[in-house]
Specification:
It is built from 15 helices and 17 strands. It has 377 residues and is an alpha/beta fold. Strands 9-10-8-7-6-5-4-1-11 form a nine-stranded mixed beta sheet, with helices on both faces. Strands 12-13-14 form a three-stranded antiparallel beta sheet, with no helix packed on it. Strands 15-17-16 form a three-stranded antiparallel beta sheet. Helix 1 (28-48) packs across helix 10 and helix 6 (168-180) runs parallel beside helix 8 (213-229). The protein is globular. The protein binds iron/sulfur cluster.
């Protein structure tokens, strides 16, 4: 049995205006105790999850590279001691261009992290300032260069589109600048304004205006076109890669596979049960120190819910969902449960249903959220 392992580092130099992740201002004293708590939580789970193979580890945030490399190494050493990592385990670390020197990257790579995901977002100084990113354009170039010099052979970039006042031409130029850096993988997300963010308040006051939906759709089409022309294959709604360089960690999520999340606010899916740790790092630390567990919520999924989630996640992948695998997993007839929904979506040409697979059609890809909802009743 396979298990994806996610490690959450919740600290950032500054909270970006659009951010609704579980991230908090840098706090060196607290982060020292946080790492100790993380190690303790890892050891707690390692005793019960020894039978699993771990083909992927993902350290996200927040900004993991805000921690000293010695602590990042200590965390990975503890993971290796406690879990059964596969020999070709994909070990990703997220990085913010403002936080990384060459020596740091060399130490991180030597510690065993073999994939780096760089939060670029934009190549335009004004856009970076608007997003309240702490890095500038120059630091993107130097970070990519340093990461390659430090022997990271698997490099991903995150980019964001549909920013206020962003034109299609501007977005296209970002995509071209990104592909000129020859990353192995690209994630492209449109800016969405979430409640409880600084951007949400600005939008409420009418001070933030996103491009019209039609423009956003055109930007998405441009993304697919530019990246495919540059040799990247789209394998998920927002993700593109060179052949064989897909994010294995995220593919496990989209396959609704099992995963363990460790750290403040981290989620897990194990034995049909979803659980989530408490968000606030200070409370997470206290809970781990006193009880070794910081689980805040637990939910056992009903079969229909689990099936709906499997489709909701799997349809994000361009190759879709195998009906055989689905039926074996849930011991039901796919046709019996979803026949009506499939028929209606096929009539609207929003899905394809070939060779025993169900997938979004090209048209369905642009309307993915509403198509996927049809399976969540
Ligand atoms: S760097 Fe990422 S996690 Fe940190 S505040 Fe900005 S968007 Fe959020």
């Amino acid at each position: 049995m396979n298990l994806g392992l996610y490690l959450h580092i919740p600290y950032c130099l500054h909270k970006c205006g659009y951010c609704d992740f579980n991230s908090h201002p840098e706090n060196q004293v607290e982060s020292f105790h946080y790492v100790e708590a993380l190690l303790k939580e890892l050891k707690f789970y390692s005793t019960t999850l020894k039978t699993y193979n771990v083909p992927t580890v993902f350290m996200g945030g927040g900004t993991p590279t805000i921690l000293p490399p010695s602590q990042l190494k200590k965390i990975l050493d503890t993971v290796r001691q406690g879990f059964n990592l596969t020999s070709d385990c994909e070990i990703t670390i997220e990085a913010n261009p403002a936080t990384i020197k060459l020596e740091t990257l060399q130490e991180i790579h030597a510690a065993g992290y073999n994939r780096i995901s760089i939060g670029v977002q934009s190549f335009d100084e004004k856009e970076l300032q608007l997003l309240e990113r702490v890095h500038n354009e120059e630091e993107i170039h130097s970070t990519v260069h340093r990461a390659r010099s430090a022997n990271f052979e698997n490099l991903s970039m995150d980019l964001m589109f549909a920013l206020p006042d962003q034109s299609i031409e501007k977005w296209q130029s970002h995509l071209k600048q990104a592909t000129a850096k020859n990353p192995d993988h690209l994630s492209t997300y449109n800016l969405t304004i979430e409640p409880a963010t600084a951007f949400f308040k600005l939008q409420e006051k009418g001070k933030l205006c996103l491009p019209h939906e039609d423009i956003q759709l055109e930007m998405y089409e441009t993304t697919i076109q530019v990246l495919e022309d540059a040799g990247y294959s789209q394998y998920e709604i927002s993700n593109f890669s060179k052949p064989g360089m897909e994010s294995q960690h995220n593919i496990n999520y989209w396959n609704n596979g099992e995963y363990l999340g460790v750290g403040a606010g981290a989620s897990s899916y194990l034995n049909g049960e979803r659980s989530k740790n408490i968000n606030l790092p200070s409370i997470y630390i206290r809970k781990i120190e006193t009880k070794a567990s910081a689980v805040d919520t637990r939910e056992r999924l009903e079969p229909l819910q689990a099936m709906g989630e499997t489709l909701m996640l799997g349809l994000r992948l361009l190759k879709g969902v195998s009906i055989d695998v689905f039926e074996n997993r849930f011991q039901v007839s796919f046709q019996k449960v979803y026949g009506k929904a499939v028929e209606s979506l096929l009539n609207q040409e929003l899905i394809t249903f070939n060779q025993n697979r169900i997938a979004l059609s090209r048209k369905g890809l642009f309307l993915a959220d509403s198509v996927i909802l049809k399976f969540m009743a």
